[in-house]
């Protein structure tokens, strides 16, 4: 029992990624989209629909990988991500408009 | 060349471009060249709402208590919104349906335009509730100089495309003399250019102009005034977010050349024109802000702040269609607007409180014996 939960923790740790934003660095998991995790870290992000169709939360992705559990309805320009539904998959660097 | 309501040719609609290919014949949605438009239709249908569901009795009292210059701001903004949706409730149908070539896009245009007619109906609902004589308000939309200036700029690209397509459908290619206008040359590149500029100006209408008006509506609600109105505008904003995504997809698909290689060339040639459409609209919106607040501002919103919001939102929308941003303003000067724009707490009926795209009658037919394992009789 103890062994399993330890494994869980170490697996979760592996899923932590660094998000670089200017001089700030935020740690995020793959459990939730980027937007809520940035908000929790006190970073103001623009939003409207929060479900991938309005593109208000579009942020520049300078490097790194994100994935989308569902393909968003909004057009995502190459080099950008939609924070409300993007799951961070590696360390990334982002920049606001 | 001439339009047919049921094209008799047999062709593969999956190989047609979005516009200026074959006229659509069979309305079929089992396959789509661009699945995004089918998804937009489904989303829009799940958003269906009616203005009468929102109670405006407190708004009447609020309106009477507003100061005169605040009533001017509120009514002028409402007139502008009425103008914009009057245009949008008909123009995508009139301008785009005769030239569309994909069934899913044809139906998206109709679904989109229909939702704009709901918006128009809600302005009547609002106006009827706050003033005794709605005619005074409606009449001013066609005579007020500040409003008619905007009418010109939101309708001119549509009108030009409609005129060119009419000529093309009756006369084909060539140069034709239009009384009062002189010679008009109709070629396929010219038609496509008119189309691209129209889609761009519609994107500006929905993604920039509308948002400026939303800011004013929510400015009142921030002070707990005209909250019924804000609730309606919130529903309208949810629809508009979807519509602007539709026009962004059209523009980006055209520019990518994936849909129609010739359209990519046109889009490249039109880049400066499109930039100018955005910038001119932003300047007009700033002028409009000055007109709105000419007799005084309101707490939380004035011509300067609204002007900064115009610049900010224009930058965001330019970036979304692959253009470089134009204005210096990098931050949203009215961050409180997001809490009003957010769609998932729009409440129409109680059962819809938790999810905005509440679907009625969703049943699960994939039952088998194992689903009844927990049942004991």
TrEMBL record, chain B:
Its cofactor is Fe cation. It comes from Marinomonas colpomeniae. Its EC number is 1.17.4.1. PANTHER family: RIBONUCLEOSIDE-DIPHOSPHATE REDUCTASE SMALL CHAIN (PTHR23409), RIBONUCLEOSIDE-DIPHOSPHATE REDUCTASE SUBUNIT M2 (PTHR23409:SF18). It is an enzyme of class 1 (oxidoreductase). PROSITE patterns: RIBORED_SMALL (PS00368). This is ribonucleoside-diphosphate reductase. It comes from the Bacteria.
